[in-house]
Amino acid sequence: GPEGGSGPSKTRCSTPHQRKVANPYQHKNSKNAGNHSTAASAPSKMSKASARVRRICTVPKPNPQSEPATFPVSIKEIANELDPEKLANTFKQRATVSVSFRNRHNIYDFTIARLALAKRFSLIEDILESHKDFKDISHEGFAIRIISLYGKAGMFGHARNLFDELPQLDCVRTVKSFNALLKAGVECKRFDEVCRIFRELPSELSISLNRVSYNTIIHALCEMGLLDEGLLMLSELKSSGLSPDVITFNTLLDAFYREKGFQGGERIWATMVAHNVVPITRSYNLRLQAMVDGGALANAVTFFDSFKKDGLKPDVNTFNALIKGFCDLGDVAEAKKWYNRLLDSGETPNRITFSSLVPTFCDCGDYELAFDLSKNMFNRQIVVDEALLQLVVNGLVKQSMVDEAEELVELGKSNSYVQYHLTTPTNDKLPENGDHSV
Question: What residue spans define the domains of the chain?
């Protein structure tokens, strides 16, 4: 990660002594807040006519918090800025003058993700640290956003530092910001620190854990491979007067089905039923995926009918599990059938859908359908590996469908969301037959 640190360690987590938060949230004036005030008392002796003239003729004072008349805030505009340093400077300037800009969560998520992908962590620090100067930071919800953004960027040390500084920034810490810190640690894969924080901080800060806290630590334990400890946390949760929910069980189902096979996951399913927790579509998807992974594709197809019977709607992940299962078996007809059922359902195909189907169609020589799928992918602005598209281009040339190959190459250059460097090879430079590696 950007801040170093050792890999996941198998630290055992115990439940801290819990005390409820005694202090209600109180907003205090930040040391950085401006002293902007307006004196707007109307003259008591002014006639109605003269008051009206004064209202018409008076030029209002500029509000330092108001936004410029032309204030670009679109993700597209930010995406078009290719220089990361200019992007960061422009972003800071806009955040400084505009409250509404600071409320645009999608722009923040996009910008921080882009800078993190480019490994420009100093620019991320420059942007987010500057937000300590805004009076918004005294509101816990705003502080939680900054902690979360540090977590998404892989900068857990900065997230922890901000959490520790919140009292000096006139922000009262509750279980909400504590949970945000835990989640940031999980996203950064700093599981040993997550366990230590879970054990130590609640009693130190008089924070009472809630169900989100336990769900997060269960997630951390499962990511560490400590599945049985994660399961034991159910007892700790209940001893605190809380009840597990479907998120608790989905976290455990995901880990147990993946690591301990279908029977291991069924143990969690039975526990979920015993707790009267109603499964949702994701729960059913995890069970269906485990059937596919275990080679019981026929059982998975039968189980698919349980969705409708139990009042649930299959989503794209449901169909993807079956599509990939049949693709792995080389059963092109069934894969096509489930792809068509996906389209008929109104769900939108995604990257996984195309990444499963396209190589399968290429393997069986159905490049016409692979071409149609590739164009559909461009229409839906789905990003896939460049090698996958080059595989289709090569196959089209081999099948003397050069016009179609060149159309894909052009789409790779001209689309508005990602640039693919595809080439139209000559027949003598094509890969050997059967080389469909992606």
Answer: 73-208
